[in-house]
Amino acid sequence: MLYIGCDVGGTNIRSAVIDESGRILGEAKMRALMEKGAKVVLGQIVDSFREAISRAKAKKEDIRAVGIAMAGQHDSKAGICIFSPNFGWENVPVIPSLQEEFPVPMFLGNDVNLATLGEWKYGAGKGYKWVVMITLGTGIGGGAVLDGKLMLGATEMFAEVGHMTILPNGPRCGCGNHGCWEALAGRDAIVRRAVMKLQDGRKSSLLKIVDYNWRELTPEIIANEANRGDEVAKEVIEETGYWVGIGVANLINIFNPEVFIIGGRIAQAGELLFGAIERTVKARGLKASWGPCKIVPAALGDDAGVMGAVAFARQRLGEEL
Ligand SMILES: [Zn+2]
Known about the structure:
Helix content is 39%, strand content 22%. By secondary structure, the chain is of the alpha/beta class. Helix 8 packs across helix 9 (271-284). The chain is globular, with a radius of gyration of 20 Å. The model has no long low-confidence stretch (mean pLDDT 96). Bound molecules: zinc ion (ZN). Zinc ion (ZN) binds next to loops.
């Protein structure tokens, strides 16, 4: 039996045909035409299913179920996207619409929650029962598999960790609050930290790389230069690790996981970032909680969404995973 996992992001739609062992047999990726509205995007999603099936040299009849990972708050039982600020969607009947064109069992869930399930089933959380995951990006998302069960929350808002207040009078967050975790450790905060050091006249290889145009700086560039030994970039990654670590310590104290997974491109910064995170966790968390907990980078990269979507669909069908 085969499954389709679909990851709908603000930029791209990606669908993959995946077998029971978690192997990707074929996939389709296209730019999501969000500006054209939900109806067009839903049509694109069905196109991506058909293209992925053809790339996998499979037939529609081979597809047992489809899982869809999408940013936002959903009613996963009804298959409705209640609210997705990134897409500008409100109460879009995702599954009922898609099933008119593609009548197979279909399941919709939040992208970070499903990525967490994917890492638990196939990636860095494999073999564990208590797994917490965060994704570091523009915002900070969270998810958890606790006692082997994916958490969704009462209104399927589990877990907006990026909006934990970490510094009450800190920088303003996109949500309107001050000092949220993502306002201190999200993408913009990382870049801002580097720009401030450069504005102070510090010498750094960062300047040449972006040709003195600070707006071109990204966390990935900063992480790269830090690993090449640039002092300013190293400081920025270490300070980022400190702020990430404060939130991680809180989450480890609360959830007592066996493994704490950190995803997002910046998580590939390696030892420099993880060292700073671990030092902060050890300084602030409870030893009985962090002692047995491994803090590790995500293993599936961009595949976590499609693989988690398939795991979600299979669980909802009642298959043993
Ligand atoms: Zn916030």
